[in-house]
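Bench notes, afternoon.
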Amino acid sequence: MFNYRRMRKNTRELLAFRYAIENSDNIVLMTDKNREIEYVNEAFEQHTGYKKEEVIGKKPGMFKSGLKGDEFYQNMNEILDRGEKWQGEFINKSKDGSLLYEKAPIIVDDELVQYLAIKLDITDYIKQQQRLKQSAAVYEMIGDGIIITDKDNKILSVNPAFIQMFGYSKEELFGHESIIISTLKKDSVFYRKMWNQLLTKDRWSGKVHTKTKNGKVLPIWLTVSIVRDKNDEIQNFIAIYTNLEEIIEMEEKADYLAYHDSLTQLPNRAHFERQIVDILELAKMSREKVAILFIDLDRFKVINDTLGHYVGDGMLIELSERIKKVLGKNDLLAHIGGDEFVVILNPVKEKKDAGTTASQILSVIREPIRVQDYHLNTIASIGVAFYPNDGDDKNEIVKHADFAMYYAKDKGKDRYEFYTEQLSIDIQMRLDLEQELKNALEKKELYVHYQPQYDLKSGKVSGAEALV
């Protein structure tokens, strides 16, 4: 006898599964046995820019960016042809041409694929059942954890990804109250706002932290949706858990690369620009002094050009380590250019303290450096400026330290010099003179006169001098 009650139960569960898939924040794309697209969810449209009508019946190869070689797709197809699960990363293109990075599994279900191929040409009812079974397959294989509860928040179903993510067995979950919003947040305001949005908009999503069965804290992007019946009464809650561990790790790596020099592993110019603002603000609040040391290596370009970049790189790495050992734990050392470093002494009490540190830096730079079979020597010029005495913002204080560094070079190198107001005056006068000379040349305001030179004994012209 045909069991209609079981059929209704299965249909209800399949509908809930389908709802979970269609409301997932992850892209879901399914193909038939000919690898032609027959289903995509709303997240696909949002992420790729394509409408369902534009892709149904076409092959996924239309999204290729060209950044993955033929060998990649050949290997993938060989695995799928064997009926095995494939998992990897794609670099595809969205409709507007922007790159779309995707990490996804492709699941092959021989029975379902054959079934899909058959039911494409029959009645709408069968097509609906086929789509429900497709949703159920995705529910089982998707990497996001999914919980489905009844209106009283009692767990009806969980997918394998949730069990794997949190470590609970089905027996520990089914029939028990859901941990949909059991997060590490204890603020009652958070829960009230969450439930208010969920009950009024039938959907809530946000970042939370939850614990697994063994106590591990997971960063989760949680999406909770409400399924209502025809009378608009709550029928089910569906929660989708996306583990953010890998994403956060990738963001941290990207942040490190963005703010650190890949050669020396020191903070780079961008990191320095960001940190100096915070350091100066704190110094202002605590009324402390901060010293900026602008360091420029002398003769580095000669060594780098003569012996090669590999030797020059080894030299920079060694000098970075030496300078770090001279500094205190609160001081900042950044590599801001090829042969330029900057140090923030935070805080510094007396002018002589900055001078002592500058002398120590000069001393360790002056020591012989061995790179491969080369014994190298270099020196440096250091300019020192103080906050707030020599400037009250980052641009001014760094500029003045730079002025002092060039003055140290003019004085003979291998030395440090403190910034003074007279330095700014002298540099400004030099810049003004250079600009005036440039303008004079453009306006042809300079003339050359030749004045003869006479031999006093013979009275004859012995030469000439040019006067401008």
